[in-house]
Amino acid sequence: CLAAQLRSQAFSVHDNAGFMYMIAELLGNPKAASLARLYAELSASPEVAADQAENIQNELQKKTVSSFLGLLDQLLVADRSKKPC
């Protein structure tokens, strides 16, 4: 559910950072936690007046979310492929 909300792109940057943090905590995955922290840091950066700098920041945020979701997909596929005990 949290991943679906993150994928929807319908929420604020602050909400997305919260979703990523919650997912990373639930997974207990260090790489997911690192990406969530990076996104939060990018989101907390002061708004830059120059359009070009703001566009670069937005692209970095999008790439971070994309990397996070890619990792999440990999982890979920790996988890589903495990055979029960």
What does the model show?
- This protein is mainly alpha-helical.
- Helix content is 80%, strand content 0%.
- It has helices spanning 2-8, 13-27, 30-44, 51-81.
- Helix 1 packs antiparallel against helix 2, helix 2 (13-27) packs antiparallel against helix 3 (30-44) and helix 3 runs antiparallel to helix 4.
- The protein starts with a helix and ends with a helix.
Q: Rg, please?
A: 14 Å
Class of secondary structure makeup: mainly alpha
Query: How would you characterize the largest beta sheet?
Result: none
* Principal-axis shape: elongated
Number of helices: 4
* Average pLDDT level: 84
- The sequence of SSEs as H and E is HHHH
Tell me roughly what share of residues is in helical segments: over 70%
Task: Give the CA-CA distance, first to last residue.
Answer: 26 Å
Number of strands: 0
Low-confidence stretches: none
Strand-residue proportion: under 5%
Overview features:
single chain; 85 residues; mainly alpha; elongated
Give the topology, please.
Layout: H1 2-8, H2 13-27, H3 30-44, H4 51-81
Helix pairs in contact: 1-2, 2-3, 3-4
Summarize, please:
This protein is mainly α.
